[in-house]
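S., here's the first fold you wanted:
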Amino acid sequence: MSDADKAAHPSEDTREQIARLRAQVDALMRDRVEPAVSHMAERAEHAMGAVRGQADTVSAQIRAQPFISVLVAAAVGFVIGRTLR
């Protein structure tokens, strides 16, 4: 397409540029963003599994020794209350 044709039909040139930019953005999303998001999701899922495991362990300890758990909670509450005065 010559310069005169481009001047006569600027919307076609603009459409081609937009199409190229869209293809570049799609390629960047596919090559860079999606793998990074996927990796972060895997790490978050792993962390949630670890947190669930710790919560289950604490819950089991509380069920096994409820009296000690109440004493520990009371002591922690007392210390926090004294500290915040």
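And the second, which I think is the more interesting of the pair:
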Amino acid sequence: MEALKTKSLKNIEQKMENLDENSLRFHILQSAKSFKTSWIDLGRALHSVWKDKLYKGWGYSTMEAYTAREIGIKKPTAMKLLKSYYFLEKEEPGYLKKDYSNSANAASLPHYESINLLRLAKNKKALGHEDYASLKKSIFEKGKEAPQVRKDLSTIMRQREELEPQEARQKRKMATVKRFLGILKALKQEIEISKLVSASVIKETANLITKLESEIG
């Protein structure tokens, strides 16, 4: 993570003092302390907590409250950890068998942000099999960090758009129409509340919104 702040680390250590060293709760806190070299271990444990709602038994109403208050991880980071771990479990189960926690290879462990980008890339229809394989290799074998992976992915997607200019233009047009529709809806709501224009104008705006929605499906 970006290492945990000193205050968070102290908070974790204080909680660990009162827990059974063999408990899952203790194990997760221990993993959080050495996050940079054991995010997979932490992701695996958090996945178990989320799946079985174990946080409720520990006095937290939500997963977000548990990760934020107990181990100092905000919701976006926690969700990336969960999704990145689950992605590896589903797509690269063999990789999870490697033991990085106590080995010299821990420093070469791909960052969860890089794995998360690979997960997102997997779902991009425009990304070909060879492109995905190349991206995957750059992460697992070359150890590329998230900023470079993001840059590579953007380059690949831009190249694909250049190969399919008509489809790319259509996507851009659709994106513009959707933005316009969003702005129009927000303005309609504002003028309705403030009564800035007549009822007939508001009605015409509503009709326009309906037509735009039908065009973009």
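Why I say that: The first helix runs from residue 6 to 17. The chain has three domains: 1-108, 110-163, 170-216.

Talk tomorrow,
H.
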